[in-house]
Give the backbone structure.
Amino acid sequence: MKYLIYPLFAISLLLFAGCAGNSSPEEEAPDMELTVEGISDTHWTYISLETNRKVGVSPLDDPEGDEEWRNRTDWDIALCGDMIKTNSGASGAGDGGITRLDDTPYDQVTSASGVTLDTDRVFW
């Protein structure tokens, strides 16, 4: 199965968090697309937004695999079916987070407010 991930809620937050203060108002963010193949309902697919690559997979409900990925910082988001987690909180040692944009177009977002860190339950 092939999914096309657009820079919406999770990606926008991670990009704003990673790039805050590094660009001038005159600079425009490039259009970004990331195609990730191999997303399944039985395995987490871990993605690095820095390298725009899939960095690995682990089985769903695998405590040892979850612990290994929790300690890694080379991933930003992970997908499993319709679930998503960020490298933050209960899911990872990173500084990621997520926010919902709802009806705000990505190019009109000016700050990353209302950030939620991962918890033990997947809520998106």
